Amino acid sequence: MMNLKKLLNGQGFRQLFSYLIVGGIATVVEWVCFYIFSYQAHIHYLLATTLAFAISTAANWLVGRLMTFRGAEKQPILQELAKIYAVSVIGLLLNLLLMYLFVQKAGLAKMAGKIIATILVFAWNFIVRKFWIYRR
Predict the structure, then answer these.
(1) CA–CA separation, 16 vs 13, rounded Å?
(2) Count of other CB atoms within 10 angstroms of residue 112
(3) What does pTM read for this prediction?
């Protein structure tokens, strides 16, 4: 309950709003990359998801570090990147599982599955970044 209060306080709300913007930028990067890899390069949708997710994670880390979590705990950059990619690998696995379920099992179009999976994994990424990677 304490973490929920911390998330919803003024600063937490500002971080969430900023992360929505940063996440929006990373999402556009991810969706454009996914579209190019999947629809233009005809790469299998799960591999296209992996490639797009890796590229967008780098964009999300860079912009998020500069905008959303700039006053957070300072740590060596390699340690921070290791945490970012650890969280992102779990996020990627969630993303792949959701993509498989939405496309193969539910019969959704690839892009529709991608949009829904992105929204669900977004929440995971913000919460873990706020309370583990960039805690104060």
Answers:
(1) 5
(2) 13
(3) 0.71
